[in-house]
């Protein structure tokens, strides 16, 4: 079985708007075709200055900050100013608030099925791995 390569994905993939006026998220790949019982999906999340995004995870997710900055907090009161290179694990059931004074870009891998292809992919094909 061969691997899949997404050349320059961080710069070329533009995730669609998903919430408020400033939150963008798009899946670029999934293992769903090869492992429908325990799929993982990956993509980019971008937040621009504006309305905070509050998200309750229904799956486990790992995220690495690849550009910019986020202020991330959870329902326990834990707060982190996240910058490029920081890695996070968000357990299923956690309620996370994302905000930024500038912008932030994260790459994520979540233990879930791919989101709707039509709403998540703009100008680029999604290829299952």
TrEMBL record:
Pfam families registered for this protein in UniProt: EutQ
TM helices/strands, residue ranges: none
Cited CDD domains: cupin_EutQ
InterPro entries the record matches: EutQ, RmlC-like_jellyroll, RmlC_Cupin_sf
Superkingdom of origin organism: Eukaryota
Listed PANTHER family: ACETATE KINASE EUTQ, ETHANOLAMINE UTILIZATION PROTEIN EUTQ
Protein name in UniProt: Ethanolamine utilization protein
Organism of provenance: Hymenoscyphus albidus
Lineage, broadest ranks: Eukaryota, Fungi, Dikarya, Ascomycota, Pezizomycotina
């Amino acid at each position: 079985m061969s691997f899949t390569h997404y050349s320059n994905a961080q710069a070329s993939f533009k995730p669609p708007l998903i919430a408020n006026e400033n939150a963008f998220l798009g899946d670029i790949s999934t293992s769903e075709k090869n492992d429908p019982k325990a799929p993982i999906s990956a993509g980019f999340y971008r937040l621009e200055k504006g309305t905070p995004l509050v998200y309750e995870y229904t799956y486990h997710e790992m995220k690495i900050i690849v550009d910019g900055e986020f202020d991330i907090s959870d329902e326990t009161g834990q707060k982190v100013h996240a910058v490029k290179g920081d890695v996070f694990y968000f357990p299923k059931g956690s309620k996370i608030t994302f905000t930024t004074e500038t912008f932030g870009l994260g790459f994520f891998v979540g233990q879930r099925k791919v989101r709707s292809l039509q709403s998540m992919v703009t100008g680029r094909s999604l290829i299952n791995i």
